[in-house]
Amino acid sequence: MSDLIISKRNAISNWVRQFITIVDINKRMYQLQERIFGILKWGQFKPLPKIDYVLIFRTLFAKCETCAVDDLENSIHSYYQVSLVHNKNRRITIQETKNKQEAFELANTLAIGLKTHLKDSATNPRKSTWLL
Description:
By secondary structure, the protein is mainly β. The chain has one domain. 11% of the residues lie in helices and 46% in strands. Strands 1, 2, 3, 4 and 5 form a five-stranded antiparallel beta sheet that branches. A five-stranded mixed beta sheet has the order 8-7-6-9-10, with helices on one face. A hairpin with a 4-residue loop joins strand 2 (17-24) and strand 3 (29-36). The radius of gyration is 15 Å and the shape is globular. The protein starts with a strand and ends with a strand.
């Protein structure tokens, strides 16, 4: 397992601005990085707070007036989001992707690397389950 995890936040990135999250498992540090045209970048490493658990869920990002929240599975505007939850309800967003397998693999890697629990709120939004 790599000690450095680099993930893109696809839901809010575009061709001008990209948002990257870097987590250093061994040093227990993270960086929220913003890039412009992939050239100019900024963001500083900070110590990870005490992580309560890794959370994976689905959400809608694009404003879609005809989209029903119940229809997340079929919406082209929904993303899987992997976050680190700390201080009971604060989150550090690590990744946003439309690829379910990619999201679950990253969430599992983070939970194992950080020696914490993994909560799945993506499979059934009405009933979260603990996977680790």
